[in-house]
Amino acid sequence: MPTITFQGQQYECAADEPLLEALNRQGTKLPYGCRAGSCQACMLKATRGTPPAAAQIGIEQKLKDRNYFLSCLCRADTDMEVALPDPADRYHASIVFEKEFLNASVIRLRSSRPEGFVYQPGQFVNLLKPDLGLARSYSLASSCSDNFLEFHIRLIPDGRMSGWIADTVENGAFIFVSDAMGNCCYRKDYNDYPLLLAGTGTGLAPLYGILRDALGSGHRQHIQLLHGGLNSEGLYYQQQLRQLEQQHDCFDYKPCVLNGEAPAGGVQGAIDAQLQQSLKSGQNWRVFLCGDSDIVNTMRKVCLAHDIDQSEIHTDAFG
Ligand SMILES: Cc1cc2nc3c(=O)[nH]c(=O)nc-3n(C[C@H](O)[C@H](O)[C@H](O)COP(=O)(O)OP(=O)(O)OC[C@H]3O[C@@H](n4cnc5c(N)ncnc54)[C@H](O)[C@@H]3O)c2cc1C
Fold first, then answer.
1. Whole domain around residue 35: which residue ranges?
2. Which of the ends of the chain has fewer CB neighbours closer than 10 A, N or C?
3. Which ligand 1 atom lies nearest to the CA of residue 161?
4. Chain segment 151-169, per-residue pLDDT in tens
């Protein structure tokens, strides 16, 4: 049974037990997000011993070279000493200059774009709260032509990161942003295909980035955006999206509300029901689904049932 040393204490890993689970079971508070190797919030550095190759999948080379690995994927086969990531290796400092509630529970945070920070709209980053070692993933709503980063953060009751952002982070505060990850992004070769973008709540954040990227790249075919909310108060950015609709003939925006009256031009009902209608109205869709994981999974099944090839379905699921 391999022994793992962390902050001077020793921990045992049971057979086939991921290192993250083993250490947190024994009382550590290692940060984590998806626990499935995609969000990279649980990244650690091996300061002694070599992490298994399977725990380095998806990590950029410069971090692999410094022995970083994902603790949720790490089934240790030898003794190791591990440490929390050095913020200077993984995170860029960014200064908040705007914080605004877009509705009762969604905060828009805008912060400076760190020098050398490269991303594609639709990707996500991890935000770090260094004093607690807490990391959470948030999707980028900004587009590369913006000289700032934009996030849409839903305030979760008792949520540690979203609560900290709502209550404590103010203009002038530093936040720490990881490199961008994920591949739910517009591609130039999609120029000749219609795009269907669908998401609920803050799932609009990556969709807004993807939409502006497509429009800015001169997308020629139809783009439809479905944004779902429990009711019309749950929607946001209606004015911005209506404005884009007026500026671009190819774009149409359809808000969908589950309860109560839909805003003008919108529909009442579940977003997956509207997605079915939209899929039927055209062909060769390239699809982007973002937001709550269960809803993304439901919508993904709808797309597969309509014979959309899975390579043409891009998802950013807030797992
Ligand atoms: C790839 C990715 C991209 C993401 N992008 C965004 C984004 O752009 N905007 C955004 O607002 N969020 C996004 N999320 C979700 C975000 O990372 C956090 O999970 C969320 O903000 C809650 O963190 P917290 O620390 O505030 O809550 P925690 O302290 O982790 O949780 C507090 C309580 O709330 C529950 N909880 C956690 N998340 C949710 C939820 N989504 N709905 C209901 N209950 C919940 C927990 O089970 C717990 O009981 C994304 C997640 C992933 C994996």
1. 3-85
2. N
3. 25
4. 999 999 999 999 999 999 9
